[in-house]
Amino acid sequence: MSIVAPSFPLSEGVIYAIRTVTHLNFQGNARAALAFYHTVFKGQLTLVTYAEAGQVETAREPEQIIWGQVTRDDGIALMAYDVQAGRDWNPGSNAFFVSLRGDDIDTIQPLWSALSDGAEVLQALAASQWSPLYGMLRDRYGVTWVVDVVAPNLQA
C-alpha cells in the first residue's frame, strides 16, 4: 500500500510538505468513527487492521484498526486507530478539541450539520465576537469539535 499525503497551498504560491494531523485513539470503535467521519468529509478512507499488518499479537481483536485515516485534497485529514492490548486508554475529559476551520459559511455549514448527527451540541453554530460562524459539539464518539469560519481580519 502506498500512502501519499496531499500537499496544498497555505499561502499564495507556497506549497508546504509538512503539516499537523489530528490522530484519534479509540478502544474498538476506530472503524466506525472513521466511517462516520468519511460520511461527513467524503474524500478517501483508508483502513488497515492489525491482522493485515501482521500484528495480531498486539491487538485486542485482529480486525481492529491499527492505522486509519480520512483525507481530502483540500487538506482535511484525520487519523485514528484502536489502542493495542495492554496499553492504557482513557478518552479523558476535554483532553483535546479538533478544530475545523473554513473560509466561508457555505463550506462549514454542511460539515457542521453532518457532524451534529448523534452529537451533543455544546455551543450552537452562530455568529460570535471573533467569527462569522462558531460552534462546538461532542460527536457520537466523544470527540469535541470546535467549528468556525475564520474572520477575514484574523486569517494568518
What can you see in these coordinates?
With 156 residues, this protein is of the alpha+beta class. The protein has two domains: 75 residues, no CATH class; 57 residues, 2-Layer Sandwich (Signal recognition particle alu RNA binding heterodimer, srp9/1), CATH 3.30.720.110. It has two helices and ten strands, in the order βββαββββαβββ. It has a four-stranded mixed sheet, with helices on one face. α1 packs antiparallel against α2. The N and C termini lie far apart (36 Å).
Q: Widest sheet: strand order?
A: 3-6-5-4
- Give the H and E element order: EEEHEEEEHEEE
Low-confidence stretches: 1-11
Distance between the termini: 36 Å
**3D shape:** elongated
State the major sheet.
4 strands, mixed
Secondary-structure-derived class:
alpha+beta
The total number of structural domains is 2
Query: What is the overall number of helices?
Result: 2
- Approximate helicity band: 10-25%
Strand content: 35-45%
Instruction: Please give the radius of gyration in angstroms.
Output: 17 Å
Mean pLDDT: 85
Strand tally: 10
